[in-house]
């Protein structure tokens, strides 16, 4: 070490002699010789010159030793305390030259690297006009010790002052340091709220993720005309990390994070809340890679405001995903691939927004490659107690079910989907029906009889649901089920009990519901091998249906009557009139002691407050039924 110190002193002396403006040129010895005083005074002048040289060397040596002692003995606390005793070290070009020689000649220990970084930062803070003087030194130091340099800079200047911005720009602009420094920065970003990292000097203080966020934002601002390759390559990782920061800093703010952010705001102008700054960084990142149009599109839909609210954050994330896919499917695909491991691990904090993002980009993925892992994630969320997660899982399932390759894999989800058909959430039921329809449509999987029975029981209440979309989808699913199920005697009673709702909805004012009813009725006729009913439906002769049904299946007339009675209260006038006619025809197939006959009479009698056309038809039908009941020839009426 002593050899290195004397070597450094020699280097410093030589450098000072080369840079000294008073040094005489080598080609002027003759001129100097001409003006020399008499020979007897030469010895005295040489002595004075030697004394002056020794004085200069002594002062330089003291400065060098003082500077090195400051580094080696880590006496850099004056930089934080404002001690001016050493201020001359950081206000002179000599200190820059010393730092250059220290780093270029390797005259330092690894544990002094953090102190050297702090010295460079302090020098740049004190010397505004020459901010690129130490660029080469900083790059050389970072090439050898990237972790120590980046972490120390984040600790020393978390608010990223002017000097720190200069240092980050230098490191990102160098092809030798750009990649390792960015990777360290990204790693710190991913650990919330702080990342414990030990530097070579033994410092184990936490490095806050928000410090890395501020540094990243500055890097993106410095590179407004270009985007570092490392940022482009790590775009999915960065975007997901920043979105998580927005969420977690909105959801919960620990005291240590609040204290850190308050200290940063005291040093420079920053938003009052960290989540707003994280959103600014997300905008800067998207602006670099996708342009201003994406930001404006999200802003028009209030996406940025929703991102800052805990209850609407996942909606905003889904909106962001849609806009990304609209611009570039490759971006959406790369982010989804990065997202799958996180969702597979089941990280609870950001699981809902992550699921919202995944569902929006599913159409960009290859189901054969990512389908199994996505299906595993979705199946877990189908059983979630959170309605929002169940809805998102079902949305994803609908997308997957459109691919024939996934249809067979979804067979294991039948039980979960059957339970969801009874959910109170209309949207959840609607998506469940759509997923079932898509899977059965490919006819890859045959539905077992037990599963078909459960499905028929779950569908029957939906045929008369007040939501037309549920009516339509439930009847379309029935038709698909009839095509995908093997004929079984145990299924026939359930199919018979579906005929009356289909008949009435065949006359529904909603054309889509009417068409779905027609298809379901046709599928039921084929399943029952009932040729007359099949012809009736094919030829579109609905008026023949009541007689055909009641004649074919007299044993279930009472059940059919109970199914038809609710249609007397339908909001659609044609359906009320159709129900009156159906009940009138059913009455002639019934015995007088049947309780359903009394129900018919009572229901028709209560329709006096309806419109004249409906009430008159009800009274006429009731009069005929009563007249026939008084005769002994009731069966011939």
From TrEMBL:
The organism of origin for this protein: Pipra filicauda
Keyword Repeat: yes
PANTHER family to which the protein is assigned, alphabetical: MAESTRO HEAT-LIKE REPEAT FAMILY MEMBER 3, MAESTRO-RELATED HEAT DOMAIN-CONTAINING
One protein family per Pfam: HEAT_MROH2B_C
Domain Maestro/Maestro-like HEAT-repeats, chain residue ranges per copy: 376-625
Keyword hit for Repeat: yes
Domain of life: Eukaryota
Record-level GO cellular component terms: cytoplasm
Regions that span the bilayer: none
Origin organism lineage: Eukaryota, Metazoa, Chordata, Craniata, Vertebrata
Name under which the protein is recorded: Maestro heat-like repeat-containing protein family member 7 isoform X2
SUPFAM superfamilies in the record: ARM repeat
